[in-house]
Amino acid sequence: MSALPFSDFLELLRAKGLGVGLHEHLAVGKLLAQWDSTNRDQFREAIAALVARHDGEVAAIRNLFDDFYPQQVVPSEPSGSATHSLSDGEYRGIRYLRDKRVWWAAVMCLALALTVALTYRYYAFLNVPPPPTGPVLSAAGPQPPLRPTDDLQPPPSVVETLVQAAPEPPPSDLQPPPSRLNRSLIAALSTAALAVSLLAFWGKRVRAGARQWTTDAWQAALASLPGPYHAPLVLKDLVTRLPRRDVEDAATLLARAFSGVGRGKELDVQRSLRETLRSGMRPQLVFRLRRVQQTVLVLQDVSQMMHAHAARVESLIVDLKRQGIALERWYFDGDISVATQRRNGPPVPLDVLAKRREDWPLMILSSGLGVAATLTLPNRAWMNAFRKWTRRVWLSPIRDPELWPAAVRRLPIGVLPMTRAGLLQAATILAQGEGASPGMLSRVRETAGPVTIAEVEKLKQLASVVPYPTVPELELLRQRFAPDVPERAVLHVANDIGAYEGAPIRMSDGDIRDHLNQLRKTAPALEIDVRRYLLKVLADSEPAAGSAAHLRWEISSALHRVQIAELTSGDARPAVAALTALAKGPLWRELRAAIEKLPPSPQQSEIRKAVGLQKRKDEPPAFQDRTGHLPLQSFRWRMPRWQDAALAGAVALVVAAVGSFSGAFRLQASHALDAYALEYRPSAAADAGELRIFTRDPDSSAPRTVRLYRDSVPQDQSIVLDPQRGAIVPLPSGAEPHVYQARAELPGGAFALSNTLWAPSALVIIDAQPWARVTVRSPDGRVPAMTQVTPAALRLPEGTYDLSFENGGITPPLTQQIQVSSTGQRTFRFDMPGFNPSELLNQLGITATPLPARQSAQ
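Below the sequence we write its predicted structure tokens.
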């Protein structure tokens, strides 16, 4: 029966290289004492959390637990969430879901489709007013169907038909129509923004889910690989033994220890004679004392913190035994207050052991890193037990006293380094019982000498080639490539507790790149030699094929080959092809982390591209289970959360707010110019004549109900237009001339307008030879000034008007005055000063002919 619970399984973990000691045994015991669950998987995770130091050990403990305590599989009905083998289409779909380009294409297609739909909707229902047409003479504009009285009117003249009339100025009260917010367009645009942003946010979550599923799948594939998982390097050339001469000298000193009570069989003649003379010649026989070698009590620290020094300590004990030194070994797991006669055996308090072996020499082999925790114990009996041994010494495998923990100096025992001077002094103390004086200890420590920064930097450069070496691996590199650097400098590089426990020496990625780059600049040949030697070490340490450790072995080998090929200008294509294949496997993340530690080089971009570092660092490669035996969960679609909807709603609100206040989505209504035709015709029945209003385009959507405005003042009655004939508004007899216009109100505050004209008025044609710009002014200012190019047709009220002609300096200007009346002259022609057409024709060699027709027309 085991002394501690689960000791068999914990011993298995310790045999596999995991850090399991007495503390872990006690921790598991305390866990069992408080465990109230029957869930096997939860207990497995709890043990992994107690013992493991990193993710790799967690996976290893899970696998070993499953092998040591296999789970009984109970057949059950398949459910929707049960694990199964996925098809190729599902793997391909998950790969597409992880692709950012696919989601960007989906977002862009949705945005484009919504844009096209909004544009079509906008222009399909947009009411664009017709372009304005220039006002023309009544005879030139579209005419309504003739009425019976129309036959009595004289037909329009040729001049009235060909010459356009100048438009009357619009009334001053007609302001631009008010603008209004296009709420429907903003609502549609906000809905489109909501859909696009919701797709983007949801797609981000789906991508994250697909990425996490792929990462978990690769973790499952890694966990399914058989062990070993972290196979250590076989360091055949590593020297861990102390020099033979040092061990022999120490063994010689230890062999001189003897007991003062032993009687031998050999007669001591000189002392017998001396004692006989002193006793008055009475015979006295004195025998020589028998030298009895005493057994040395050794307390060996087997905690995790001694893992890096275990080989050296073990070789020292073996060498001492080979020299004939009697040793009795006891073990303690960091806690010096408790010892065991065998590893993980029943504990014995130190004070009890002191009562049993108090007359024996005591030698403790430990780094002392667990003393600080032991000093916190309330029971200090173990501290008094030290004083029972008159011959006691503490040997530390840490050779530099500066790295010793301060708690060791608080113990009533002398601490010496495991060097030649320290070993000889320890043998002297154990053999002769001499106490370790402070001066003696200081002399022993001074023999070590200081460690320089240059020595530490040289070791860091060697460590950057591995990278992350353990203390034994760095010591091997020091022995082969930097023997001038003292051994104690290794622990100045590995100055953390994890390195003492056997974990790799941690350096930042930036430090690794800098030191490796410095080594490549200063000593590229040394780097080549180191990498070639590491390939030899890897060849000696190849683990079982198909295991996780073998994949890590392949990664290390390929990286060294790539760097050697780069330094020697060799062919790196086989090594790059191997890295490309490994980058698509379970150790893709470890491979990328190793690639990032390499210094910049011409082949760096090719290698980074081969392993997928051009993308995101945590973007896993595409996964596909070729075996079909992995317990993979089906991909679970993640529906949009309320956070995604809230963010998308916020984007839509921002779009709506920007559209509302920017003015880009406001509808500016426009007046429909010349939607109606307004003409004046004198009538024989009424002296003032009549106004005719009709729609220019009978098929237009202009309102049929209009109001007549006189001098910008609306009349009381509305006028309903006949679709074919329009409407006639008679003017009262003797009415004064006014500006008339027909208007109809449109939705949005705009108006459908007709042309403006004076009524009663007369159509006047003004011409100037050869040509001119004529400005017509009313002396009383009733009619605004109008400027036209001759010949000009103007409808003017009866009265006197001043005419001003100018043609840009071709001829002198001309000023005339005309009288307009309904029964008077309608056509006014003038010759500009200095204009003689006959003389101009004569200059051109053309004989002028009289124009009787023109003179008669005038």
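The longest strand covers residues 672-681.
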